[in-house]
Known about the structure:
Strand content: under 5%
CATH architecture: Up-down Bundle
Order of helices and strands: HHHHHHHHHHHHHHHHH
Helix content: over 70%
Shape: globular
Structural class: mainly alpha
Largest sheet: none
CATH class: Mainly Alpha
Number of helices: 17
Number of domains: 1
Distance between the termini: 55 Å
Amino acid sequence: MIETASRQAAAWANRPAPPHLTTVRGAALYIGALLGPGLLLLPGLAAAEAGPASLLAWIGLLVLSGLFATVFAAFGRGFPSAGGVIEYVTAGLGRPAGHAAGWSFLAGVVAGAPVVCLIGASYVTELTGGGRLARAAVAALLLLVVLALAAGGLRTSATAQLLLVGLLICVVIVAVAGSAGSARAVNWTPFAPHGWLAVGRAAATLMLSFVGWEAVAPLTTQFADPSRQLVRVAAIALAVTSALYLGLAIVTIAVLGRGAATIVPLAELLHRAIGPAGNATAAIAAVVLTLGATNAYINGAAAMAGQLTRGRAAGVLAAIAACGLPLITLYGIGLVSPASLVAIPTALFLAVYLGSMAAAGRVLRGPARWAAVPAAGAVLVMLGCCGWALAAPAAVAVAVLGRRPRAARNVRPSA
């Protein structure tokens, strides 16, 4: 979703016509950037991490999301560029750090594609039956289909993505409203079965659902009255996503109890809401969302790679296949868990946000600068909960920052 929003922002930035992005259209694009198929999986993973206390992680991240919105809106006004986080981090921390942020974002997208495919596959096998191997086989098939579509030049339009987001919203509303009557107070005890530190781990897992504010920041220059419209757009987007996230988080715990620790929480809720048809509804929605979102991820990754490599982005599809298929295979044979797969792109995106918040502290002024300070602290805390997954952003940073400029390699020392 976020990559489609980035391309949409770039298209708007290059339009010769006067700014006329409406508040409603802007809010829809922001919501589309924030929501994605991860919502089909992450409530269950968070419940597995922290039990009912995972609700505290959701609440904390919604507050953090508001801080992110403030910072990236200011970036969009002060540094209007289709380069997004690359240009923002470069402005505050220099070109090498900007490239590290860009490559981390790209690596997060590449590592996230197989996760999205596994989400769709999990809902399919919930309907058809089958274990981890069957799930991995379906996920691999979904990934290959999307790669083939991308190789053929198919792009998911922004309108199609917004329709997909609308589908996700409808599915969540039906699941939450329809199953709420099955809520039980006993499901909230014990509240923190894995200790309070588990809330931090749950927050790190859930962070994947809060990435997206940076993708639509370039759109801020296309509002007729940014100072007034941006406040309304951010408020609408934050209100809608907060209602969806909190509603789903509360109902997942209250209705499913210990059964909330599942990789198909929406299927379970829909089954209670509309009966056996719920599993089929969830599977169809999951497959459609998976194909649409993964196509957007892949096309967005190609665009990002082209910018980082001066147009040489031909290897992106091969890189996604080379990364995604082995990860799916490792899941299929039981060597990695869904939580482990989510941890990799989460750590990469957290590194991008840390660089962005650090840059904001240096180049922004006023409320945005003050918002960046606690946001950076929260990101640091979540990075500390990522454990072994920190190796991913560390490897990217070493690879990018360790490179000397090409011109420097050709300079011979003077006698």
